[in-house]
Amino acid sequence: MSQQPAPAPARQPLDEHAADSVRAYAADQRAKVDVLASVLEDIAANGYPSPESGVPWETARDAHLARLADEQPRVA
Questions:
Q1: Which of 30, 46, 53, 69 has its CA 20 to 30 A from that of 15?
Q2: 53: which DSSP letter?
């Protein structure tokens, strides 16, 4: 076996529309991760929130399903 790493595959360039879509997706994911990180930092600094201050999962689920039902249909 060779000790040399395998060569990296050549990359296929994206057209401008595809590149913009990838950048938008990356920004969306980064924003979600930033929200999660801030929640975890708050828990680390202040402890867990009390159960009384939370929202029952059924209520959160129903609100999320209602938001999904109100959205315009999208093409994947």
A1: 30
A2: G
Phi, psi of 72 (to 5 degrees): -75, 145
Task: Please give the C-alpha separations between residue 67 and each of 5, 19, 38, 49, 70, in angstroms, as whole numbers.
Answer: 49, 29, 24, 25, 5
* DSSP state letters, 15-57: PHHHHHHHHHHHHHHHHHHHHHHHHHHHHHHH-PPPGGGS--H
Q: How many CA atoms, within 13 angstroms, populate the side-chain half-sphere of residue 18?
A: 4
Query: Which pLDDT tens digit goes with each residue over 20-61?
Result: 999 999 999 999 999 999 999 999 999 998 888 889 999 999
Residue 40: other Cβ atoms inside 10 A = 10
Query: How many residues in the chain?
Result: 76
